[in-house]
Structures are given as C-alpha cells and as structure tokens.
Amino acid sequence: MKAARTLAIPLAVIGFLMLLAGYQQQILSRLDFAALAPLRATLPHLISSGIWLAVAYLVNRIVGLVLWDPIHSRVPVPRLLRDVTGLLIYLLAITGIVGVVYDKPIGPFWAASGVGAIVLGLALRNVILDVFIGLAVNFDRPFEIGDYIQLGIGPTAGPTGRVMELNWRTTRLLNGEGNLVVIPNGRLSELIVTNFSRPERMSEFVLPIFLDFDVPTERALRVLSAAVASAAGSNGVLEQPSPKARLRGVSAQGVEYRIKYFVDPTIAGPGKARHEVLRTVLDQLHRAGLHPASPSQDVFHAPLPVRKLDARSADDRAQLLGRIELFKGLTDAERLELSSQMQERLVTEGTTLLRAGDSGASMFVLYEGLLHVTVKAESTGLETRVGRVHAGAFFGEMSALTGEPRSATVVAATDALMFEIDKEQIAALIDRRPELARVIAETVAMRRLRNSDALRLANAATVAVETSSLTSQLLGTMLSFFGISAKEAITTQKLDENSAQNPLA
Ligand code: CMP
User: Fold this and answer.
1) Is the pLDDT higher at 27 or at 7?
2) Cα(280)–Cα(240) distance, rounded to whole angstroms?
3) Closest listed residue to residue 362, CA positions, set 326, 337, 327, 397
C-alpha cells in the first residue's frame, strides 16, 4: 500500500509523458502556427528529457523504498545519504539526456561540468567542506542520530546534546535546555567529539565530593554510597552497573571522595543526571549532619594599622616629638601636653621666618622641610650662609631663651612645616626638666661660635674650649632670664659632668 502511494506520482508522470510522446505528431500538426515554430522543433526533446527525469524520480523513490526505508526502520538514516544517492541518480539521468536525447558527446559535458565545478568549488569552499565532512561522518560514524555527544573538551567545551539530524551542511543537536543547536559540519573536523552513547549506550560519570578530615571515612562512604544509590533509577542515572562511592585522595581542601555513576543519555542528558546525584548527595549529607568540606583557614578582615603619622594631628605630633633629639627624654604625657600647646606654621619656599636683629619670644621645631641660616659677615658685610636647619631640629632658641634680638636670618629653602613654642611653654618645660636647658645652651653656644668669623677659622681645640665656656655662660643667662635660679646648682653640675657634643647643632 505504501509502495503504491510512493510510486503512484512518478508512474503517473511517466505515463503522461509517454502518452505525449506517442501523440506528439498529432499534437504538433494541430499547433501549426508560425509563432509556435520553435516549440515544434524542441517539443520532442523536451518530452524525452522529461521522461528521463521522471524515470530518475521513480528510481530514486524505489531506492528509498527498497533500500533506505528498511534500514531506517532499524537505525535512523541521515538525510545526507539519501540526498547524495538522489543526486547521483539525477546526474545519470542528465548524462542520458545529453548523450541520448541531444546526441551530444558526454566527455565534453563532464569536462565542462568539471570547470564549472572548480569555479563553484572556490566560491562555495566552506559549504563544500561542510558537505564532505558530513559525508565522512556518515561513513566513519563517530556518532549516529540519537547519540548524546559533546563537542570540544575541557574549559572550551562546546555544545552538548542529542544528535537530531545530520544533513548536507549541518549537524543538529537538541541540548539540555531543549534548544536546537546547529553546527556546520566543517567544525566537526576541528573539534574533539565525546560520544556519551558509545561504545555502550550508557556512559560513566564521576562527581568529586570533599569532606572534612574529622569525618571517619567509613561513615562518609556509608552516607555517600547510600545517597548515590538512592539517585539511581531517576533522571537517567542507571541502577546497573550500580553507582559507587570511593576514596580518592587527600588535599588541603579535605578528603576527596569520588562518586561514580552511569547514565543512559537517551533517557536524560548528563547535566540532568549530575543534578540528580548532587541533589541527593547534598540532601543525604545534610540529613546525616555532615556538609562538604569548607576551607580550614578563616580570613578576618580588619582595618590596617595606621602606618603614617601626620604632624598636624596633636597625637601624631606628640609621637613625632619623641623622634626629636631634644624631646626624647620626655614622658608620653609631657610630649602630648607640649604638642597640644604648639602653634602650626606652614610656609612656602623662600619665606623669611626670622630676621637678624628682630626681637623674638618663641622658638620653633621643624617637622618637615629645610631652612637656611644666614648672618652678615663681619669682614665683608655680605649675607653669608652659616648653617642649615634640618627636619627634627629646633631654631629661634637664642632669642627665646636669652631675650636677645634674633642672631641670624632664617629662610625656608623648601616648603616647610614647623611648630612654634612660646617662651612661657619653654619656661614651664625647663622648670620641670632643667637638663633641657643644658642641651639647648650647648647648641646655642656652638651655633654662635660658628657664626663668628674668627672662630670659624680657628682650630678644633680652641672651638671646644670656647664652646664649653660659652655654654656655661649661656646657661647662666637662660636660667636667670627665666628666673630659675634655684636650679642653677644642679644644671651647672650636670654640665660639668657632660662634655659630649650636641647632635642638633
Ligand atoms: P635666634 O637668634 O633666636 O634667631 C635666629 C636663629 O637662627 C637662631 O636663634 C638659631 O636658632 C638659628 N641659628 C643661628 N645660627 C645658626 C647656625 N650656625 N646653624 C643653625 N642655626 C643657627
């Protein structure tokens, strides 16, 4: 019945064309008009060509009926094979038309077709590649319709799905989301294809699970084996071969277990099966009071300790005072008190901070920057640099502690940040710490001597003697200036004990 239905149309077409061929003289005599002259000449050829093509049509259908349909009832036959066979049958029919109907030599026809084929081949390179790879896949049969395959491997793995069709140009997969993925056959030659349905219909999959070291392995295996066994039978996870849980290794993450299970991809894709196994495993672990290993090191986030100090904050300034030689011996509380009393002065390069001859009642501590100290040379009368004040040193102490006019001019060589301490604060400090007076007196003595032309040129021994006697003299002046006469004995005594040079000068 099916055969009759399949062959009826081509047989009817052949019959009709044969009828036309039999009556063509009568038909032509009835169409005896001048305008139809070309048709009269070609009609016999057209009818004969039609018969050849109709026979090819019939043969193609017979091949389908006797060859492809029986095979297809056992394994799905790719459309490509049917199409290629059909193409060959029609090519033979066309050759017959050229050779028999038009009585032309077949050789040049094939040669002309060859040239045409080359031109066409260059233009349709990719399409032809797709066709040939498609043919190769059909003969090589790395996968068949219905197989579950994955294209590519590793992190660059491409689509995964069931093969739905393999045609002239493309292979079509139905992926896990139910979408049709169309892959040009040419790409198949470049990619590694994993066929989950070969060599057997089922495929083995592995799921790693990490548990903490303190979970006894025997308990872990019991829970995991039970979990995977209960996943078997649903979503493509097979009961036979039975799934298993095995101990795999130990790493920083914990103890590694591997769950092996088998999937029939014709029932469900590997993704669905993995979902089922993982869901059951996590559920069973949870019920058993276990959970996958978590990192055994905790990371706490805390604000970083302050690594920089800012002289403009009173607390930081107090800390920085401790780095200044003169104030090293003060307690934290004393430094904090002093730092909160000091006045900030931020100046730009070139600013004249103190001018020789001016009166002054405060001294300064330089925190950042560099200062130049100049005096008018006695010999030349020219302004000459006699010293530099570096960060961490003090200046302006001479006037502040003796009441005399400023002995030199101080200019900012760079932008500079300093803090001013006035006379009352210095007095309170010296009252509490008389030893500071000695250190300052020593510095003042050295600076004064350095500023005098005669002593700058004198030898080291003379300078030492002069420094010592000037220090004693200055100390007396300072103490009486501040009215700290009661401390005189102590400081003078200390001064005699210590003849070390002051690093601040
Ligand atoms: P005073 O005299 O109050 O004012 C000018 C300041 O310059 C002076 O205090 C010292 O602090 C400082 N000074 C004077 N001579 C020198 C020097 N040779 N080296 C460094 N600083 C000096």
Assistant:
1) 7
2) 18
3) 397
Alpha carbon of 352 to ligand 1 centroid (Å): 13
With bands split at pLDDT 50, 70 and 90, how would you rate the model's confidence at 314? Answer: confident
Q: Tell me the C-alpha distance between 186 and 156, whole Å.
A: 18
Find the 505 Cα to ligand 1 centroid distance in Å. 9
Q: How many CA atoms lie within 13 A of 373 on its CB side?
A: 17
Residue 494 has pLDDT above 60, yes or no: no
Q: Is the CB of 434 under 6 A from ligand 1?
A: no
Angle at 417 between CA 411 and CA 420, to 5 degrees: 85
The single residue listed with the structure tokens 């993995």 is: 274
Topology annotation, domain 143-195: SH3 type barrels. (2.30.30)
> Minimal CA–CA distance to 144: which of 263, 266, 264?
266
Burial class (CB in 10 A: 0-12, 13-18, 19+), 394: buried
Mean pLDDT of 490-497: 44
Domain covering 315-432 in this structure, CATH number: 2.60.120.10
Using CA of residue 36, residue 38, residue 40, residue 44, what is the dihedral sign? negative
CATH number for the domain running over 203-287: 3.30.70.100
pTM confidence score:
0.43
Query: What is the C-alpha to C-alpha distance for residues 222 and 216, in angstroms, rounded to an integer?
Result: 10
Mutate to test the pocket of ligand 1, among 447, 451, 455, 502 (most ligand atoms within 8 A of CB): 447
